[in-house]
Write a structure and sequence with these properties.
Helices cover 36% and strands 13% of the residues. It is an alpha/beta fold and 425 residues long. Residues 98-100, 127, 129-130, 177, 181, 206, 208-209, 229, 242 line the site of pyridoxal-5'-phosphate.
Length: 425
Amino acid sequence: MDFFEKAYAIEQDNRDELKHFRKQFAIDDPNLIYLDGNSLGMLPKATPERIQKVIHNEWGRKLIRSWNEGWYERSQEIAAKLAPLIGAKPHEVIMADSTSVNLFKLAYAVLHLQTGKKAIVSDELNFPSDIYLLQGLVKLFGDKHELRLARSHNNMGVSKNEIVEKLKDDTALLTLSHVAFKSSFMYDMKEITDLAHEKGAMVLWDLSHSAGAVPVKLNECNVDLAIGCTYKYLNGGPGSIAFLYVREDLQEKLVSPIWGWFGQKDPFNFRLDYEPADGIQRFLAGTPPVLSLSAIEPSLDLMNEAGIDNLRDKSLTQSRYLIELCKHFLEPLGFSLGSPVKDRERGSHVSIRHPEAYRICQALIDPKTGGKSVIPDFREPDNIRLGITPIYTSYMDIYEAVMQIKTIAEQKLYNRFSLQKGRVT
Ligand SMILES: *Cc1c(COP(=O)(O)O)cnc(C)c1O
């Protein structure tokens, strides 16, 4: 059978051992292909019912009694279901705040501990919010730290040597995105963590683009700290609560800069002196958003059932397939690959580049273009990100999306779209 024909995609879907999981998601528009699960994951069918229960039974009927019947422990319980996906012990993870706020809390705690060291290292491929937070921290600590960003030799990935150049004995903190949001480049977590430890630096990984897509081994790699969001591959819903991880032995050494009552040793004794809770609880600030927290559980149950290693295997087979289709059908039309070709250097999305990327994205999304509506996303200056979410993406999704991109580029169907960009791309 010809690899480049539709029949191949159909056959792969038939053989896919995870294919039944797709039915667990709300996919009710047969003319929609969703390839943006790396920005906002789809809705699991079980989630609305779960939230309804929390609203009607727990909030509606039991009212405030629910705090003693499950709400208080919920952050910890949800975190325990996330822990196996990121290779951590349950008591090393907690659901809290947003990814940005968690970065702030943990990076602050490190700078406060590592008083003799005056450098922070990251890279220029990192998510801008992470960099802004580091810039803000430098100001907050009185402009005494130097923020050094490792450069990328090819605008796609950062080599080990490019990190080594920036890591010196003065480094308090190395913080990186495990998978880069634009190119999907993925670091070797163990190798980079070891390098930083050799220099006495602590390491904080942002797992926003890897949690739920790539098996992360925080304990095995001896990682100090990690953060990440739950609305991407973890399908927790828009703005769902984020997570943070602090290695067991560091929990007593680090103190959150936000001394809220949920991080206090015994919040309900209402003492006026703050004493941080033992363990991971101390990184909480205030009351958790119970509705949003509960919404994450159905997806985590599906992820654990599917198994993160199986999800990764499927993601890799699918991204290799996508890359081959792009080479065959799209490179002749002026596209180039914006993601690493080596499996071990790539997360779960594939970026393709084209000078007209923005308008091609508009044409893909607009149902008036003809064919199915395809939702990827656009990242400056010329990236179309095609997100593979192995728990629900099919081979046909990938095949049809590539065919649609081909048609749009060949016939220049993007010409009728404006170059003016919307607020959210
Ligand atoms: C998505 C993402 C975030 C999001 O942060 P929020 O606080 O949820 O807005 C942070 N870092 C990275 C690397 C991301 O990909």
